[in-house]
Design a protein that fits this description.
The protein has 352 residues and is of the alpha/beta class. The chain is built from twelve helices and 13 strands.
Amino acid sequence: MSIVDQLQRQHLKQLTPYASARRSMSGGNIWLNANESPYSNSYTVDDSKLNRYPEFQSQPLNQAYAEYAGVESSQVLSSRGSDEGIELLIRAFCEPGQDKVLICPPTYGMYAISAKTFAVGVTEVPLLKSWQLDTESVIDAAADSKVIFLCSPSNPLGNRLNPDDIEQVLQHSPSSIVVVDEAYIEFSSGNSVAGWLERYPNLVVLRTLSKAFALAGIRCGFLLANDDIIELLQKVLAPYPLPDPTVQIAVQALQTSSLERLQQQVSALVSERKRVETTLQQTPMTLMAESDTNFLLYQCEDAAELVSTLAEKGLLIRNQSAQRGLNNVVRITIGSAAENDELIQQLKDYFS
């Protein structure tokens, strides 16, 4: 028996790690499998202080994001992507081997993975056939759940949860932390719930620069919450969570000129999404939900074969068939116009 087998925490023996797009697929020259932006924008980095540790929390960065999100800077925590925010919430609020989080599958896989990593239980309340919350069941299960994770707009579905349902959960679950993951909010036609923080002390909103801001490579996310939650999370946050180059680039991305560019790029991607969706109506694939994101989710006859065939031709899309209720389903990121043209042609060839 190896030293790892002897000493590892017992619950980790059965844990399957999260299979990210990069971890599960490689190669190719058109990447439409990770919901990344096709845009690569230029920034400058001052290297004169790279010999020094960065700030625990950058006030210029948190202030800039607070102004962007319409909240107070004291209600902002910056972190290594929103994935770290998920982990911080579980570590801060859940007792291992005792407490539970609640998720509504199909949903983002890191909620459950992060909980299981810390020996925290996971209660599942599946979405309804309409892909909306089973609000009554969520509220009932909340009595036994410390943290409730709601993804809106949804990954992997793409649709937006009914805001009235989210508010019902907040109102009737005052003893649970209700987390609304808004990673794709910039693409949405609906409003953010960040403006609800004053009304609901149990609300937390997750944000990221990885999607619409086209900055997946710098790993920068934000957690929006009332001051007491932010103060608690700072107790379990690493001493230097964000590298200085990340902070510099993020601050530049939140300047007025950069935000204007962001809106132009989001508008272009939404237009491309509509074009791709309209064109793919000619294929035998079935759209699973109306998208409020930068991707589309389709059901096909054989998802594994489709993903494999496109990958052999250098085009990567994501197989989501392991998710509850998503049998033979693929997720397609909206890329540049040229990438989308290639996608459309390859799908036409595949189904011809």
